[in-house]
Write a structure and sequence with these properties.
Order of helices and strands: HHHHHHHHHHHHH
CATH class: Mainly Alpha
Largest sheet: none
Mean pLDDT: 80
Distance between the termini: 94 Å
CATH superfamily: MFS general substrate transporter like domains
Number of helices: 13
Radius of gyration: 23 Å
Shape: globular
Strand content: under 5%
Number of strands: 0
Oligomer: single chain
Number of domains: 1
CATH architecture: Up-down Bundle
Amino acid sequence: MALNASLMTSLEKRSSISLAAIYGLRPALVGLAMGIYGLTQGALQLAFGAASDKLGRKKVIVFGLFILAAGSFWAAAADSLFGLLMGRALQGAGAVSAVVTALLADQTRDIVRTKAMALIGASIGLMFALSLILAPALNTIAGLTGLFVLTGLLAFGGVAVVIWGVPPEPAMRTVVPKGSLKEVLTHIPSLRNNLGVFVLHGVLLAMWVAVPQMMVDAGLPKEHHWWIYLPAVLFGFMVMGKTLFPLERKGYLRAVFLTSALVIALVMFSLGLVAGGTPNLWCIAGILCVFFSASNILEACQPSIASRGAPPHARGMAMGFYNTLQSLGFFVGGAAGGALMKSGGAQVLFAVCGLATLVWLLVAWFMEPIEAPAR
């Protein structure tokens, strides 16, 4: 019986599959190199936080910044995709966000805790907005290698600030009580806060899968998107300053928190309606101003509330768990956002984001009243 000429031989199959895998592997590695930073961040936040409870906050922060610097220089020197992947993974291993938050909570009174957390959020938001403006120029001047080198140098600058600029930390317990991990993982207020930070950052990343294209469809090229982002971010900071801090002093922090979560849900549904019609740039800009107002308030509220409710003897560990869920939220939001856009489009994406936020709001509704901070 004659062999069907259209059938592939075993050698042909092996060759085709293996070479196709090479083509498929490279885009996968590029995506992994971009996302592995968040994965290693999320995986190590809890360990760094727990270590800071035993060893001291500043020591752990300095150690983490040295790891970030090492990863940055490794990525800058990389001459292959695998080298870049390892550098990015090492960058993420400097997971000190939780420790920084715990140290700030150690060194601030309740009455100013939210304001202190807001300063951190403001610095992140401003750097996000400025990066949209400066990153293209820096990339043209220094290239990707130069950007990694700059990141490493900034990490060394952070070490200097921690050593000589940050006030001495309060005396730490030399022994963390047994059962602290179980206490943190079963603490209902902490679990409620962790769900909130997971949902907020998942929704935040998922929405940016669709919003840039909506602005392009509305007639604004990508290189000019900062025209919308920067004013919206600054408007959000102004609203936060005029509402959050005065209302917190009057004992309305819980109400502000819940209202802001509801606003995020309404923003998602509003963006879904806009995506279903002809995108209007002014409409998108207005919605983003409302979004940044609510998200900035939540970015200040959430870590403040989480640090207040955390067991004092395991605050670093608790904030590590909190930051782990934040990183996982980014990861899940990016992955789910891409999948939802592919399968159902922007309307489905925003609908799911809105419903997820409503679920969070329902859970958060049962949080205990938050008393006005003692003066």
